[in-house]
Amino acid sequence: MSPVESLLLVIAGTAIFTVGVLSLGAHFTSALSREKILLWFGLFTAPYGLALVCRSILLPSSDGRAELFIVIFGKLIGLLSAIPALLLFQEFYGKGWRLSLRWLVWIYALAVVSVLCLLAIHDLPRSIPSPGIILVILVPLALLIDRRAGYRPPPVKGSRVVFAGLVAFFLTFSYDHLSHWHAGNLRAVTEPFGFIILAFCLGHVVSRRVSANEAEWISMTEEMRAARKIQTSILPARMPSTSGFSVAARYSPMTAVAGDFYGFPEVKPGVIGIIVADVRGHGVPAALIASMVKVSVFAGVEKAEGPAEILEDLNATLCKEAPGQFVTAVYVSLMRELGAGRYSAGGHPPPLLWRRRLQKLEVLDTAGLLLGVRNEERYSEGEFNYEKGDRLLIYSDGLTEAENRTGVSFGDNRLPTLLVSNQSLTADQFAAELLKEVLTWSAGDSESGQSDDITFVVTDLC
Prior knowledge:
By secondary structure, the protein is an alpha+beta fold. The protein folds into 2 domains: 3-224; 235-461, 4-Layer Sandwich (Phosphatase 2c, domain 1), CATH 3.60.40.10. It has 12 helices and 11 strands. It has helices at residues 3-29, 37-57, 64-93, 100-121, 132-148, 159-179, 191-234, 283-302, 307-321, 397-400, 410-421, 427-443, and strands spanning 245-252, 260-263, 266-268, 271-279, 327-335, 340-346, 352-355, 360-363, 382-385, 391-395, 454-461. A hairpin with a 4-residue loop joins β7 (352-355) and β8.
């Protein structure tokens, strides 16, 4: 190889390696790290460029043993870089007719094993054919078979650009192998420049695709931020200040936008209304349904409806306006002067009433059907009396169903104990302690964290 050829190969290898490294850097620093195109592209180009530089700089000045090492190193790089090349090809082409691309991977894997065996036992590694020739032969063959079978790859912008790059690489690779075959020395002279053309063609398409996905991701992020802002606005800005009650609440969503909702509709002086609802699912759809819950419940309170009527109206609204969307909810109305409360629930965990004087935990278990299942469903209404010092806990199932590493639910173990051991705390202090305990319980020694939204309201009857 002449000095000019070596210099050109060094330049080509450096350019290819740089493009690969930049692609890997872009993958790991991008907001779309889940997007694998840049990863496969970088793992495809960087090893090839590195092998080309090493072969051009080190090989001409190496002795027999070093030359053997460099040749084997180059073969191994060729083996490894072809794997992400196939994965990248699948990103654009799909799986092919009857999973033809998977068959191509298996055939190439067999060729890899064969070449590795030859490298281990052969005295002349230079004479071992490059494993890449399997791909150069089989990829066009697979494309032809797929086309004859009627397979059409998914539409990808820039597919013609990618095809042009593949043709350039195929032609230069074929020229090098055919022109030097008679000499028994397969030298890559024009192939690297065909690879550069392919790399830049792929880079062009990949960058445009990632840029479009990045813009879409940013747009989705902005929409999620807006949805989160809207959801935050429907939650109470402060706790109610009704005389005779001390109220605290905690809201810990599993995702940025969740489906749990709590509120305190203004009924009349001396009366406090509490609604806790849990929309099935997460994300923006659940948040939208939560907004619908608030509108319906608050409208029912304005019409002076009781707890059962409020849930019946909410159920009818869901069945009519959002079929297929299900909600659990409990509505409680506390009347200070009467020392009594009324409540109604639909598919929701029962409120817990800790009677401090009696040192007894009472479960308010009057409940009805999950909301949104059947129109014109009737809900029953329960009543209870309370006295000073009692504590009412209304919560979503994310609290009691939080599990530790061994699969034990928080509600089955800790919740009753915490109500007893922390009865001397204020409502807000107890709420803070309860949230800390459940989050610690669900995290344990792992990093999985909570698996559902956690919402609860603590009401002390003063």
